Amino acid sequence: MKTENIDGSNAIVVHDLSKNYGKDIGIKNVSFEVKTGEIFGFIGPNGAGKSTAIRTILGLLQANGGSAEILGLDALTQGDQLRQQIGYLPSEVHYYNEMNSRELLEYSAGFYENVNLSLIDELADYYDLDLKKKIADLSFGNKKKCAIIQSVLHEPSVLILDEPTSGLDPLMQNRFFDMLEKENKKGVTIFFSSHILSEIQRMCSRAAVIRNGEIVAVENIQTLLEKQMKKVRVVFARETNYNLPAGAQHEKSNGNKLSFEYVGKVNTLLSWLASHELHDAVLEEPDLESIFMNYYER
Predict the structure, then answer these.
(1) Rounded distance, CA 22 to CA 196, Å?
(2) What are the per-10-residue average pLDDT scores of the chain (298 residues)?
(3) What is the DSSP letter of 85?
């Protein structure tokens, strides 16, 4: 779902935000804008600085420089006002183990005004969460379900999600994506951080790419996909003379077997494959680090 219900204003504005851990750089001069009503992707390999950036934007970590605004408020100095309007889903959740899920969610709801507590049962049923179980007895996936419910229970205007699908099985992932689409149709701005390119592709129209703590691009998803590298392996029906398509690189051949990496429009690649008699063909999406290394070193 790639939303277009954007009114032209910005829900999140980050400018030259930096966070250091002593001599180690967490993030450096991070800048981007998220439009109101947008589902905006934030993507990078594990360890790229995604969580550090999010926690600094939220004021959970003290920035060493730069600024961050959410809904027109300074996130670094007016966080107490923003908490009422933001839903935050961290990549890892840590709760009071002796509480059960219902007690935890009701406790969390108490920090907000006018929460409809009937949503607890409605969302627990939707995510198949046993509200009577103690937190200590929940699997990681069920703790994540609890965190998802907690993040939307107060009906925030902005959702900030850090690796939100980790721990969820495919069924629950689809239910989660469906929920996000419904929230976005109601006008909720969603900041979606992930290292999984297919999730960003499914949900977002634009994304910021972070690597080694720095933003290396803010791209439309279609532009990113056109520059995405694919690994191609083919087995010709017989040994064949061929000319690789434009965008092919790192060719390796052995008899009637050929492998190469390809960057370009997929239709061009498919036309090239169709022009040869093949026994087999495999197209693979490489790991995200390989995509970024290929794309940003070119």
Answers:
(1) 30
(2) 57 96 93 96 90 94 95 89 92 91 95 93 97 95 96 96 94 97 96 89 90 90 74 92 91 94 89 94 74 58
(3) G
Spatial CB neighbours of 230, under 8 Å, sequence gap ≥ 6: 261, 262, 263, 266, 269, 283, 284, 285, 286
SS3 state at 294: helix
Decide the pairing of beta strands 248-254 and 278-284.
unpaired
**Domain range annotation of the chain:** 10-225, 227-297
Whether the predicted model's global pTM rises above the 0.70 cut: yes
CATH homologous superfamily of domain 10-225?
A: P-loop containing nucleotide triphosphate hydrolases (3.40.50.300)
Phi, psi of 146, rounded to the nearest 5 degrees: -60, -40
Mention every residue, 6+ apart, whose C-beta is less than 8 A from residue 241: none
Q: Regarding the domain delimited by 227-297, which CATH topology (the fold level of the hierarchy) does it fall under?
A: Alpha-Beta Plaits (3.30.70)
Report phi then psi at 59, rounded to 5: 80, 10
Please, what is the end-to-end C-alpha distance for the chain in angstroms? 30
Residues 5, 11: contact at Cβ < 8 Å?
no
